[in-house]
Design goal:
The protein has 148 residues and is mainly β. The protein is built from no helices and ten strands.
């Protein structure tokens, strides 16, 4: 069984939130997570990339577990999937690493007959983010993307 406690793993990417002496903080599940990171024996490898933050005028943006299309994108006969946020938000001033922009999609397949399967694509777009130990999504319209 995987340990899903507050631990980061090799290969994950996080935005630096703060530094204090030999200590570094990253944004992790909506708060600063501090770890010892001395210059002579660093625990983290610096990298450049893209980060998202709430766009100007927003105090927070919801985090989603799936990048589903908006209700209007579903054709007749395909039930619209609710676009429901997770119980997490990205707050103003916080930054999260993005894996890139992704389209909103839903694959409808309720039988084994491939002729009835449909891919629903919406106009909404999302950014995939590393949020704690999970992958999440934020609506592209809600965030600003910057280089780190």
């Amino acid at each position: 069984m995987n340990d899903l406690s507050s631990r980061v793993s090799t290969g994950q990417r996080f935005a630096v939130a703060d530094r204090w002496g030999d200590w570094t903080a990253i944004w992790y599940l909506g708060q600063k997570a501090w770890f010892r990171n001395p210059a002579k024996q660093p625990a983290a490898v610096p990298a450049k990339g893209k980060v998202v933050t709430p766009r100007k005028g927003l105090d927070s943006v919801p985090v989603y577990g799936r990048a589903y299309p908006e209700k209007e994108a579903y054709p007749e006969g395909v039930p619209a999937q609710a676009v429901t946020p997770l119980p997490y938000t990205v707050l103003k001033g916080q930054k999260y690493v993005t894996g890139g922009k992704v389209p909103s999609e839903y694959y409808y397949a309720v039988t084994f007959d491939e002729a009835s399967h449909q891919v629903v694509r919406g106009k909404d777009q999302y950014y995939e983010i590393q949020f704690g130990h999970r992958v999440g999504f934020v609506r592209a319209a809600d965030v600003t993307v910057k280089s780190s």
